Structures are given as structure tokens and as C-alpha cells.
Amino acid sequence: MNTATGPLALLAEDEPVLARTLSRLLAQAWPELRLAGVAEDGMSAVELALEHLPDILFLDIQMPGRTGLEVAEVVTDDWPENRPAPLLVFVTAYDEYAIAAFERAAADYVLKPVTPERLDKTVARLRERLAARGLTVQAGDAAAQLRYVQSISLAPVGDGERIKVIRAGVGNTVRMIPVAEVVCLEATDKYVNVITAAGEALVRMSLRELAMRIGSSDFLQVHRSVLVNTNHIVSATRDEFGHYSLAVRGLQRPVKVSRAFAHLFRPM
To answer: What are the distances in angstroms from CA 220 to CA 168, 227, 229?
Structure first.
């Protein structure tokens, strides 16, 4: 029923009746739109999105496996850097997640039950967004974003600004952590989690700012929110989906590598 030239969309909805209703309404409102499939849970949504690389994701928020917000975050992290990022539309019965959705650059936030009139507005907005950012522009934006992320670990810093010891908080205590002992740095909201073999502590600044203050080439970007001390990396393991994870000395859990940085760990 759809042409082969329209944009590609993926639906993530765990209620079959609602999925069929949304598919029918979309077909009426946007006949050119192609549907890659319907994911019935969050895990399937991630797999199908990274397999088909759709232009648009329609995501329910409350789903088994992963929430729609988590799906959006994982897909964005693992999206190929040479492809335009998908437009995100959250379709949900809950209005309290709107702020979190728009923090993830949502194109729209639609409350259930979806009406044809409301969906028409969504389709108009999506058409406008797709027209405003052609594929060339989108690819350029993705490349620019990748360069920005990589610049976190490469940003120059004056000799006088570099630090060798990080003052990080643990409850009411301030730990003095030598940079050489840091296993990895993880961005979390307004803080950076400084992880060593002895534990974790928080620094109230952005990951980019802390990396600039450290000014060390020992730290490698492996994810948009994670820097790892290369001196502590033991191995990189690839799973059946092509995702890499790192075994890091002093850290009990593996560190995920996003697709944008997977090439750093492929065999020579």
C-alpha cells in the first residue's frame, strides 16, 4: 500500500490493537510513508531500528524490555555516523514524560488515543522537518556531532590549566584522585562519575570540561558519555550483533562501545 520512494518508519508498540490502529491512521494521513515493521517490545525496537535505519521512529514509552526513552537513547548512541539520525515521535498515554522526550530531541509527543486530526499535525511537522534537512545536511550534522564528541578527548588545553589530581566528592568527603588512577569517566546529568579501582566519586562539571582540565591523551572516547583510560583496557569483545564491550582493569562491569567508535577496536 506504500510506495517505494517515501520515507521509512518503524513503530514500537506492545499493544497489537493500538499498533494496527496507528498503522492504519498513518497510511491514511501519509500514503507515501513506508513501514519497516512493528516492534512489540523495547529490545526488538532497538534491533529493528539499527537493522532498517528508518527515517522516523514512532515509540511508545511504556514497553517491555526497554522504555521508548531508553530505545531512543540506545538507538541514537549506536546510529551509524554516516547516516542521518531518525526523527523521534513518542506516542504514549502518559504526559509526564514530555520533558524527557524533548530532551532527546523528539520531533513530536502524541498522547493516546491518537486522533486523525492530531496525527495530521504530526505528519505535517515530520514532512517539514524532513524537507528542511535534506540527506546531505543530515549527514553533515551527524559528522559534525561526531567531531564534537571526539573533540572531548582531543581538546587542547593550556599547560597552566592541566590538573594531575581530581577533587571529587563521595558523600561529605572530598577524595583526591590522581588522574593516572582513573579507570574511566562517565557523564551523568550535571556530574561526571570518576571511577577508579577503589570506587566512584562525583565531579560537578561536564565531561568535556573535565577532559580539558585533564588534558591527557591517555583517555579515549568510546561512547558519547564515556572516556576510558587506555592504560586500563584489557580487551575488547564483539558480540553477535557487532557491538563491542571493553574489559577494563579495576572495573567489574564491561564498558559499552557505541557504533561510532567501534572502528577503534577492530583487529589491525
So the answer is: 21, 5, 6
